[in-house]
Amino acid sequence: MYVYDDFDAAFLAERNRQFREQVARRIDGSLTEDEFKPLRLMNGLYLQLHAYMLRVAIPYGTLNPDQMRKLAEIADRWDKGYGHFTTRQNIQYNWPKLPDVPDMLDALAEVGLHAIQTSGNTIRNVTSDHFAGAAADELTDPRPYAELIRQWSTDHPEFQFLPRKFKVAVTGSEIDRAVTRAHDIGLRTVSKDGEIGFEVFVGGGLGRTPMIGKVLRDFLPVTDLLPYLEAVVGTYNLLGRRDNKYKARIKITVHENGIETFRDLTEARFAEIAPQFDAAATQEQLDRIKAMFAAPAFRAASDLSYQAAHSADPVFRAWADTNLHAHKADGHAIVTISLKKHGETPGDATSEQMRVIADLAEAYGYGEIRISHEQNVILPHVHRADLPALHKALKAVGLATANVGLVSDIIACPGMDYCALATARSIPVAQEIATRFDALKLEHDIGPLKIKISGCINACGHHHVGHIGILGLDRAGVENYQITLGGDGTEDASLGERTGPGFAYDQIVPAIERILRAYLEIRESREETFLNAYRRVGLAPFKDALYEAERDAA
C-alpha cells in the first residue's frame, strides 16, 4: 500500500496545525458557528443530531494493521469504543468532543490517515473495488490509479469549491464491485489492443434525483488520465448550477446539457490542457506508486486442514461457502468479515474487534485489510490452510456471521439515530429484518440478495440500487417507508422501481417478508436469484403480494 513520504507528513502536520488554531478560535468565540462550518467541513467534521461526527478517509478502502489499531485507539480514547464503516469506505466517529478533534487528527497522521476532503463541495475520498489486488477476475489492481487521483485531487486549488460534492470510483474488473455507474465519475479498467486504459462514466449519482452514469469515453489511455479528469471536473465547475443545491450535482449538469454537449466541451478542454501535463513525470509517479502495491509473496502449502474442516464442521462450511471469494493466487481465498451480525448495527465495529482484525491480518493475511462500500471488512489474502484458525478467532469476537450477500447483509445509513438530515430510522429497520429472517431460517434458502436502506432522500444507504430498496420518509410527523425493487449497483446497473404507497414503521418488516415469500414461490429454481426472477417477471406479482391485504380489504 502507499507509504507517506516526508512531503506527505509535513503537509498533514501543517494542515492539522491550522485546524487546531481554528478549533481554538471557535471555542473562545472568535469564530461563530457559521464562520467555523466551512473550516470544519474541509477537515471532515460534521455537526450531527447529538454531537460532532468525524469522518476519516480510508483511501480506496485499504488499511494496514497499524492503521486499524490506531482507529481502535481513537475509538477508545475519544469516542465510545466503536467506529462506523460507511459506504464511502470511510470510518465515522459519532461522539467526539470538539476540543479533542485536533488530537484525533494528529493521532491519525501518525499512521498516514486523515479526514481531508471527506466533506465539502470538493472531490471526496476516491473509492475502489474492495477485492482490489486479489480478485481472480481482476484485469489490473485499480488502487495505484486511485492513489494517483487522490494525490492530484487533494487540495487541488481549482476544485475546492465545486458546485457540489464530487465522488470518483475506480474498478479493475469487468465485475463492478465499486458501483462505478452511481458516481460522478466512474472508471473501469479495460484492455484495448493489449493496452490498459479506462472506460469513463460520468453523471451517475443517487439522492433525490437518481441517475445511472453515461459513457463519456469508451477508452482513455492511462497517460491521459489526469488531464482528462481535470477537463471533466473543470467543465462541470464552469457549467454546474450554483443557484440551487438540489440541481448542482454533475448528473444534473449532464442531464440538462446532454451527454454529447458535455462530451464536446470536455474534449475541447482536454485538448487545451493536456499539453500542460508532464506525461513522463506522471508515469514516473505512477510507477513509484505501483511498486508500493506489489502483491505479497504468496506461500505454497497444503490445504488439507481446510478440506477437513469444510467436510466435518457445518458451521465452518456455511461460513466458508458464504463469506469466501475466489483469489487470483492458488491456495488462497478472499475473506469477507461480516459486520452484520443479526441484530447488530450494520457497519459498526468495536475497538476490540478492530484490534482482533489487525492481529488476524498480520497472522494470516499478509498484513492487508480492505473496507468495502457494503460496510464489511475484507482480508484479501488468506491461505486456505489458515481459514479454520481464522474462523475460530473471528467467532470469539462475534465476527463470524455467515451472511455475506444474503438478506441480513444490509447496507444502512445511520438514519435518525444520528443524522440531522434523516427523516426516519434506518438502523432499527435493518436490525429487525435481519433478526426476523434469522428466526425464520430462510436466509440461505433465499440466497443472494442486496437490501439497502436510507433514512432520507439523500440516499446514503444506496437504496436506489438495492435489489430491495427501502427509503424512510416523514409523512406528517410519522415515519413512512417506500419500497423499490430491481435496483442493481453492478456492471448491469439499474435503478429500482417504486412499488407503490409506503408502509409504517411497524409494517415494513412484514412487507419485506411478503416480497420474499412471493419470490420463493415465483422462482424457477434455487439458482434463480431474486434479481433475476424480478427481471424475468417484472414488478406486478411482487406488487400483488405486497398489497394483497389492502386490496382484499377494499
Describe how the helices and strands are arranged.
Blueprint: H1 6-27, H2 33-41, E1 45-47, E2 52-56, E3 62-63, H3 65-78, E4 82-85, E5 91-93, H4 101-109, E6 127-128, H5 143-153, E7 168-171, E8 185-192, E9 195-202, E10 214-221, H6 225-239, H7 250-257, H8 259-273, H9 279-292, H10 304-312, H11 314-323, E11 324-326, E12 332-337, E13 348-350, H12 351-364, E14 369-371, E15 377-383, H13 387-395, E16 411-412, H14 427-440, H15 443-446, E17 451-454, E18 468-475, E19 478-485, E20 497-498, E21 503-504, H16 508-522, H17 530-537, H18 540-546, H19 548-553
Parallel strand pairs: 6-7, 7-8, 16-17, 17-18
Antiparallel strand pairs: 1-2, 2-5, 3-14, 4-5, 4-13, 8-9, 9-10, 11-12, 12-15, 14-15, 18-19, 19-20, 19-21
Detailed description of the structure:
The protein is an alpha+beta fold and 554 residues long. Helices cover 38% and strands 17% of the residues. The chain is built from 19 helices and 21 strands. It has helices spanning 6-27, 33-41, 65-78, 101-109, 143-153, 225-239, 250-257, 259-273, 279-292, 304-312, 314-323, 351-364, 387-395, 427-440, 443-446, 508-522, 530-537, 540-546, 548-553, and strands spanning 45-47, 52-56, 62-63, 82-85, 91-93, 127-128, 168-171, 185-192, 195-202, 214-221, 324-326, 332-337, 348-350, 369-371, 377-383, 411-412, 451-454, 468-475, 478-485, 497-498, 503-504. The strands form four sheets. Strands 16, 17, 18, 19, 20 and 21 form a six-stranded mixed sheet that branches. Strand 14 (369-371) and strand 15 (377-383) form a beta hairpin. The chain starts with 5 loop residues before the first helix and ends with a helix.
